[in-house]
Design brief:
It is built from 13 helices and 2 strands; from the N terminus they run H-H-H-H-H-H-H-H-H-H-E-E-H-H-H. The protein is mainly alpha-helical.
């Protein structure tokens, strides 16, 4: 049933044509849903701009305003409700910044796809097409997994609070008074849930696009390593043909660098925001789970903490793998069959070897190197927040 609804979650037949663009089918639909990717049809662009303006106004701007206004009446919050709202508030403020940068970077996504089309033209063997299919299927599965995890958080938090007679996030809503009867209470809760779900979906797009886009380019890096390893292995090729093959590998490497440079400004901004917030938000979530949550609200907060880990760790791990791939490319080129080549081939190879030895790295805001070690370092701030609360006995004061 699931594969019928989402056929791209299943690996297609090996004979089917494969493109790197297949990796972005579901994430492009998600970006269209939140108002970031306009249709190609010029007639529908005007209506879609209204939808984009609506999602920007209500999710990026008014949600943050509502959270700030709701804190003007702190007496209406319980400790559990306040921490649940506060951890989401920090994340929502960061989400608004990430969403703005991601929305502004949609044009760069289109440029990156054009570069992938050129790299796809170099895939001639059945094995390479199978690798593209496997990557596309993996990327679509990752996107759907993120969807399930993020929506599970909003749903569990909503239900866990509503059935205990309290609004999940206690957002400021001037249209519906939640205390005016049971119907108004559930109406306010449902509106709050839909409002927060819009923010969750935008946060999802900003968090999952680096994983999808850079898993796809890593597949092309691995295929380039194979081509470098096989240079001058075909004895039927002339020296001129071998040299042309080396030039094509240099062009492919240049396209990979152009792809990374195209997406680097967007990735740098969004990951920087995540690095800044992850420690604080994880600390607040841990305090909520340890001191104030019951089972159901603790379940929602626990899922929220898992979602926070998904925001940074997978992409940091991919960055580590891409950096390792660059060293492997240099080794593959150096250990290729070049000793008996002519002078022109060796001169070109030396030039290429100098360039390929430079690893592809990414920085968050030009400050933090995006890697698993950096991710662990910023996540440690969560333990500092919990320790600070324990030392000041803040939790005990709420109970008193």
């Amino acid at each position: 049933m699931l594969f019928k609804l989402f056929p791209r979650l299943r690996l297609p037949d090996a004979a089917s044509p494969a493109q790197s663009r297949d990796s972005f089918v579901y994430i492009d639909r998600g970006m269209s849903l939140v108002g970031w990717m306009p249709p190609k049809n010029p007639c529908g662009r005007f209506i879609y701009r209204l939808w984009s303006a609506f999602t920007t106004l209500f999710v990026i701007i008014l949600l943050d305003v509502s959270l700030l206004i709701s804190y003007s009446e702190l007496s209406s919050f319980t400790a559990r409700q306040f921490l649940t709202s506060l951890q989401v508030a920090f994340n929502c403020f960061g989400c608004s910044i990430k969403a703005s940068y991601t929305f502004a970077g949609v044009r760069r996504f289109k440029q990156a796809k054009k570069i992938l089309d050129r790299l796809d033209s170099r895939c001639e063997s059945v094995e390479h097409h199978l690798q593209l299919q496997q990557t596309a299927t993996l990327c679509n599965r990752i996107y759907m997994t993120y969807c399930a995890m993020y929506l599970l958080y909003s749903s569990s938090t909503f239900l866990g609070s509503m059935f205990f007679g309290r609004l999940a996030w206690n957002l400021y809503n001037p249209l519906v008074d939640a205390e005016n009867g049971l119907f108004s209470f559930w109406l306010a809760g449902i509106l709050e849930f839909l409002w927060m779900t819009g923010a969750v979906l935008q946060d999802l797009m900003a968090d999952v696009y680096p994983i999808v886009y850079f898993l796809t380019i890593r597949t092309h890096i691995k295929m380039l390593k194979e081509r470098l390893r096989n240079l001058r292995m075909d004895t039927s090729m002339s020296e001129e043909e071998n040299h042309k093959q080396l030039i094509r590998c240099i062009e492919d490497h240049r396209l990979i660098l152009d792809y990374c440079n195209t997406l680097r400004p967007v990735v740098s901004a969004t990951i920087f925001v995540q690095f800044v917030l992850i420690g604080i938000v994880m600390g607040l979530s841990a305090i909520n789970v340890i001191f104030f949550s019951n089972f159901w609200t603790g379940l929602g907060t626990g899922i929220f903490m898992c979602d926070l880990i998904l925001q940074t760790f997978p992409f940091c791990y991919i960055c580590n793998m891409i950096s390792d791939d660059c060293y492997d490319m240099a080794n593959c080129l150096f250990h290729s069959n070049w000793l008996s080549a002519d002078r022109q081939y060796k001169t070109t190879l030396r030039f290429f070897l100098q360039n390929v030895q430079k690893p592809i790295t990414f920085t968050a805001g030009g400050i933090f190197l995006i890697s698993t070690s950096s991710n662990i370092a910023v996540a440690k701030l969560a333990f500092s927040v919990v320790t600070f609360v324990r030392q000041l006995n803040i939790a005990e004061r709420f109970y008193d």
